[in-house]
Specification:
The complex is a heterodimer of chains A (161) and B (903). Chain A is of the alpha+beta class. Chain A has seven helices and four strands. Chain A has a four-stranded mixed beta sheet, covered by helices on one side. In chain A, a hairpin with a 2-residue loop joins strand 3 and strand 4. Chain A is elongated and about 50 Å long. In chain B, helix 10 crosses helix 20. Chain B is of the alpha/beta class. The radius of gyration of chain B is 29 Å and the shape is globular. Classes of the chains: A alpha+beta (161), B alpha/beta (903). At the A-B interface, helix 4 of A face strand 6 of B.
Amino acid sequence: MSAVALKEQELKQRLEPILVRHGRAPSGLIPIMQDIQAEFGYLPREAVEEAARWLKIPLSKAYGVITFYAQFHLKPRGKYVLRVCLGTACHVRGGEKVLEAVSQELGIAPGDTTPDLRFTLERVACLGCCGLAPTMMVNDQTFARLNPQKVKEVLAQFAES
Amino acid sequence: MTMNSCQPSLVALTVDGREVSVPAGTTVFEAARAAGIEIPHLCHHPWLKPTGACRLCVVEIKGARGLPTACTTPVAPGMVVQTESERVVEARREILDLILANHAAECLTCEKAGDCRLQDYAYRYGVARTSYHGERRQYPPDESNPFFYRYHDRCIMCGRCIRVCDEVMAVNAIDYAYRGFRTKVATAYEVGLEESPCVFCGNCVAVCPTGALQPKLSVGQGRRWEIHKVRTVCPYCGVGCSLDLEVRDGERPRVVGVSGGDGPTNEGLLCVKGRFGWDFLHSPDRLTRPLIREGDGFREASWDEALDLVARRLGEIREKHGPHSLAGLCSAKCTNEENYLFQKLVRAVWGTNNVDHCARLCHASSVVGLGMAYGSGAMTNSLADLEQATLYFVIGSNTTEGHPVLSLRVKRGLRAGAKLIVADPRRTELAERADIFLQHLPGTDVALLGAMIHVILEEGLENREFVAARTEGIDELRASVAALTPEYAERVTGVPADLIQQAAREYARAERAAILYAMGITQHTTGTDNVLAIAALAAVCGQVGREGTGVNPLRGQNNVQGACDMGGLPNVLPGYQSYRDGGLRRKFEEAWGPPLPTGDGLTVVEMMEAAAQGRIRGMYIMGENPMLSDPDLGHVEEALRSLDFLVVQDIFLTETARLAHVVLPAAAFAEKEGTFTNTERRVQLLRRAVPPPGEALADWEIICRLAERMGYPMSYAGPAEIMDEVTRLVPSYGGMGYAYLGEGGKQWPCPQPGHPGTPILHREKFARGRARLFPLEFRPPAEVPDTEYPLYLTTGRILFHYHTGSMTRRARGLQAIRPDPYVEIHPDTAAGLGITDGQMVEVASRRGSIRLRALVTDRTAPAVVFIPFHYAEAAANVLTNPALDPQARIPELKVCAVRVRPA
């Protein structure tokens, strides 16, 4: 998928079953948003607007709920989400340097996504595997005892072949 | 009345040692207030449901755990409440300390200083500064819209603005976004308010307890303690909102702001025009001295010179061509007293009934039609009463934009579960909320309403008892609507027959149904028929004469009801008293002196015609702008230019004033006293807040001076004395002397001093006895689309401008947000014509053409284009059809045929 906005028609087609499945009870806002995100990888604005109309919830309220939860993303996300750990153990063992290396290698700041929608970079407080510090996750895979050189190797595995 | 059965049980408690009894369910906050104790609070507001968010209203309740918030805690029997105990005070200090941790306390320059609740409480509890020195929220201020600033760093997250936008306005432009430390008040996607659903009513600004929301116009205009408030009436629409002008005295007293007055019409709420549209008062364009035409321009003159000239020239014309060669337009924007004097001048001094005003162009059909059917041409019910309805039928009224504060009553009713039917050629904001939306073609109202009556009678849904006891003419009505089947109506109106049936059934079966209508009904060659159809529908269903029902014409201008009441009409004396009735005429002759004319006077559009033909030679126009408000402007200009003498009295050099021989500078609403009568027949006092600019005078003073020069002394100490004269001559105003009006005014009929006024008309019987049901026959508009002019044009109003724009286009904020004229075109129609959104187009009718931008939107139907009529540079009325309703003489401003092409 390219970074261009979703075609209106296609968006509607993919959105409709989600809306129909959940019905119009306002309490369906969060589950609908979760399903939209599962379907599109993020929450496209047009889909949020359509869902708010469907539920008769003001868009400002829907936006308030979406931005309240860290799980929701308003911008397209990369195919691979990189979570660099900056918890205490990782911090002590050079997590910042790892983050800096990833950031430099991909040319994006934490929180951003590469223009080709391949990588999204995030910083997290602790991944819970302090014995492996400094660590980073790529989607569900964990990489241990990283350093700037190893970062390059890890990223190469996920680069377009 | 049964006193005991409905009385809620009382709960006794003690607040700070005072015993108080309040109804069960009352909050501790309200109970304390009832005991005369105001508990400190920031998030609580009488307009809003309590949320307990700010925690400042915590109190100590004996036996309760912790310190509960008074605004959310219901009273219980025997409760012992302490509102200022040591624990409470300590808690409040801590809460204020925490709030200040994230508040930019810039009281030295903050406009709100002196009127800021946070400042008040910090002072009261001695919290000079925060003791928490961590990170602060650093959001930049939002300065993007023309009306107010939002300073995020002064926001205390009380949520009042969010809740007023939701609970009162039902607009929901803003909400909290993000969480925790990053929380802020924001629009969806943080777009500027202009791109959000915001309507800029500013009620959020009004409820903000701190300086987070600030009107731009008031910045730097003075500290709060240098400003005093003057309670008066809004100069815009017919709702007649009570407002407080904020005045800064000094060498040149100025209005520096406006806040909502807690009157019966608006309960403190305002719309964008009332709150932010006042700065025209101090516009450099205000007329300050009389002007006399000299060649193509004007020269300034003294009052003596100008008035001598007016008196001499009008006198000469009267002498030479007779009294009926003169005509006057009084004004729906001037006070009752001024309109009364104006028509008195025309009738008693000039000796003609040629007096009319722009009510002719808005609700002449209501005055005539409701007069014929019910015996009184005014709104039957009241604004507050509208909230009692269980169903609203809104037809030909874009209430949200035309009467914004009134529309809040409807929204409140909807929130309480009322149903809504909207009939309109355009999908208005209310149509979006409607249970049933009937998008009929312009000028097909009789077919639509007739078919509804057809369904009701055929299905036996009429209120037989009401019809039998209180109406006459049911058989004629029944026979006439036999042919108006829903299927026939579908062909004529474009509305599916089954929707018409549904609407008819819902309306007839509703417990209390209120009809609201405006110019979509009246501005037609069938305007009177349309009104008669509405009157018949309501009477057949017995939906009139009770709370929450009625036929409610929403009057357009602030005093159009009053200008009619005062006899600013060519066929009746003040109070709708006929000069054909010898007894009534003699009453006025005895009061005024000279014998009064008995021949029918000319209406607005007829005056223009007569002027063009040379039958009218001299005109006096007070506060009206026919060069923008009347149909077929090309013809109006020709007519006004052909006059021997034209005198225009206004606050600005309007399009009409530019054609005058003499221009007289008048005082605006904030600069004089008098009364306005709003759409619910409520007479309210106007108060002088600032002096008029330069040598401008109140209209009543000018009329008096002119009358005197024309040989008829008019000497009044002030408007109160003029009203006293009115009370003696107009029975329904008998109790309207200033001393009896009170703070909220009174609704006519109010026949004698001390009478409470009349909120609902036709309760026991109709003003004319029985309601008359007139037979209905559908007639198409005078001009319908054809191959040459294939589209319907309908004209109307928008939220941000008012009438001919002489005031709103000189209000900076209003002009900034809607600077340019436009024509609404349906996407399909636009595509067919090769027109894209924002493109310049030419719209032409048989009478003329204008150029303006296309706004491509599906608010309008494919066959219909819409143009707001406020803009002189692309005046919709260049295009409109001056064809008249045969009875009300109102022109068909709502329908004509046009063609549109790229320009």
